[in-house]
Amino acid sequence: xxxxxxxxxxxxxxxxxxxxxxxxxxxxxxxxxxxxxxxxxxxxxxxxxxxxxxxxxxxxxxxxxxxxxxxxxxxxxxxxxxxxxxxxxxxxxxxxxxxxxxxxxxxxxxxxxxxxxxxxxxxxxxxxxxxxxxxxxxxxxxxxxxxxxxxxxxxxxxxxxxxxxxxxxxxxxxxxxxxxxxxxxxxxxxxxxxxxxxxxxxxxxxxxxxxxxxxxxxxxxxxxxxxxxxxxxxxxxxxxxxxxxxxxxxxxxxxxxxxxxxxxxxxxxxxxxxxxxxxxxxxxxxxxxxxxxxxxxxxxxxxxxxxxxxxxxxxxxxxxxxxxxxxxxxxxxxxxxxxxxxxxxxxxxxxxxxxxxxxxxxxxxxxxxxxxxxxxxxxxxxxxxxxxxxxxxxxxxxxxxxxxxxxxxxxxxxxxxxxxxxxxxxxxxxxxxxxxxxxxxxxxxxxxxxxxxxxxxxxxxxxxxxxxxxxxxxxxxxxxxxxxxxxxxxxxxxxxxxxxxxxxxxxxxxxxxxxxxxxxxxxxxxxxxxxxxxxxxxxxxxxxxxxxxxxx
Length: 552
Ligand code: FBP
Description:
- This protein is α/β, with parallel strands linked by helices.
- Helix 3 crosses helix 19 (435-453), helix 8 (220-241) crosses helix 9 (257-266) and helix 9 crosses helix 20 (507-521).
- The protein contains 22 helices and 15 strands.
- The strands form 3 sheets. Strands 1-2-13-12-7-6-3-4-5 form a 9-stranded mixed sheet, with helices on both faces. The protein has a 4-stranded parallel sheet with strand order 9-10-8-11, sandwiched between helices. It has a two-stranded antiparallel sheet with strand order 14-15.
- The longest helix has 22 residues, at 220-241.
- It starts with 5 loop residues before the first helix and ends with a helix.
- It has 2 domains: 27-219 and 433-497, Rossmann fold; 220-429 and 506-551, Rossmann fold.
- 1,6-di-O-phosphono-beta-D-fructofuranose is lined by residues 81-82, 84, 175, 204-206, 251-253, 312, 387-388, 429.
């Protein structure tokens, strides 16, 4: 029996679209450079830190001569961080670009993420090998990892490996942190006059790596469409059975772009946006009061069912929880050895309570036991709590239940409340990329080759005008330093790419805010259905609501 689905077979043969500039021969495409750029803030500090690569101009490709595109080169590629649909197509686009320039050029894939380049673990990507991955989800073509390339020791090891393999350009496919490291690597290589270029590609389902030049990171389109399909299915079930409230946590480490996009796609009764919680300084109990109010109002209208969306990162945006988590992170990091000797939860929480401030100790005490346990679990490699493992959806359900009991005892609520909880995250990260992501990713990879051929380094591959058909997309690159600012990380001021959170004064949030009261009380569910790969344009090629609203 074959292991290959019919869709998989069909997707191997799918031809992704490219911006129209790429209908020309590689040697007939030249770069046009704009004006010098500045970082988003902290210009003086960043200029000093990125002496060799700071302030380069934006690049756009246009028709013109570039004989260098035909040079034989060796390129290395790295997949970094969490999976996002379309990663395989970035590699396919890069490979096809390199080979179009010169069939003897080679592409090496570093295995298992950034650690591959320092441990010299790589494979040569061949046409035959690649064909089994075109237009498919996942990062399994070469694997991914979360190792950070940030020390000079790492950079020197990477340089040695590149020299050994004759690699003169490295393409790093990653989120804001990985691209920050790409900027540091590019700067180091440039300062050393190593002749090795570094190009970044914007990846993350979270959608928080964006700015004026990067309209969206790849993977967001497919992941949000996958979650929206599932949410729509649950809505229909909820509206049919009319007996459950579904609380759905949606992935997104920090920003609420995923929850917001899914809300715009499906019209749930409740959507919490972390950035709004932070801006309005809402406490946990205020959030619970708001959710409870909607549950009670719908119940009075005879609708004891509904759907609520909760962003994964919420807990870190609730003011008192943010302080609690930061105290916990510090206490656990500073006393790691002692903490490791505490084997029971009771011992851990007793010791933690003694070390927390009065306010945080109270905030910790009102949390249900299972959430307290999750807050004390293992940290990530950077010492941070792993939010995807905190069951915020269950926390909200438990606290709403308690509130409703109070109201029931006081004779203020006579309805019923029965709930189900869900977490959608991993379900969407490796889906078959939508047509949008297939073409966008292929274009980002193809375009990365042209940034290399133009001799640029410290740039991010940028494809703009994405709300339009692919033929109207504009291909170019932006300097990584342009997206940077200085932030305090673990007590130290560091250069980092600025994370894009949901802006409350921008069109996507405004469109949501204008409709949410109606969606809360009047069941207005919208059912997007599964991603369609073949069929009418408006069904198969529609970008996200966020992108459409932002482009207006
Ligand atoms: P990236 O920022 O690396 O793209 O990863 C995002 C993400 O999918 C988050 O949404 C989620 O919080 C996290 O990765 C989960 O990480 P892990 O894969 O380590 O469980």
